[in-house]
Amino acid sequence: MKIFHAPEGRGPYGITATPNGDVYFVSLAGSYLASIDRKSGEARVIEPPTPDQGAHRVWSDSRGRLWISEWNAGQVSVYDPHDGGWNSWRLPGDLPRTYAVYVDERDIVWLSDFGGNAVHAFDPQTDKFTTYPKSTENADVRQINGRRGEVWLLSGADRLVAIRTVSAK
């Protein structure tokens, strides 16, 4: 085991790997994205365009783009390492607090929203959100994962929720 220090101190919070094996993490306290050199283990900070956005979790899509939930900003951002470009979208509602992010096999971006007590599915092809209200007050979904045709949500309210994204045959 090797231990590496985060480039800007405390705060690493979410981590992901791209389809080609590149590893990235985000820092909640530092509000940044970082890529990890697979040989040296050193991290290179990539500054998002929104200052102090509170990068919370990160997930790669099928093209290797990095989707970041931004707690302080109430938005989701995407970074494309191929061209260095960024895009951001504010979640629906008055006071969104974006916590978890997951990208499914269709490249739909799933986000939990503590402020709106909801889960949102964002389609990057249409720039549209579909909102799923939570099953209970203060559901606080902290982690999202899935498998083909299903999205699984772990709630701080002691619930496990599955959303079927394709109909059973």
Q: Could you characterize the architecture of this molecule?
A:
This protein is mainly β and 169 residues long. Helices cover 0% and strands 50% of the residues. The strands form 4 sheets. The chain has a 4-stranded antiparallel β-sheet, with no helix packed on it. A 4-stranded antiparallel β-sheet has the order 5-6-7-8, with no helix packed on it. Strand 14 (150-155) and strand 15 (159-164) form a beta hairpin. The mean pLDDT is 93.
Briefly, what is this?
This protein is 0% helix and 50% strand. The protein is an all-beta fold and 169 residues long. The N and C termini lie far apart (45 Å).
Helix/strand/pairing category: mainly beta
Which percent range fits the helix content? under 10%
pLDDT < 50 stretches: none
Radius of gyration over alpha carbons? 16 Å
Question: Helix segment count?
Answer: 0
The span between the termini is 45 Å
Query: What spatial order of strands do you see in the largest sheet?
Result: 1-2-3-4
Mean pLDDT: 93
What is the count of β-strands?
Answer: 15
Write the element-wise H/E pattern from the N-terminal end onward: EEEEEEEEEEEEEEE
So what's the overall shape?
Answer: globular
Please indicate the percent range of residues in DSSP E strands (runs of 2 or more): over 45%
- Biggest β-sheet description: 4 strands, antiparallel
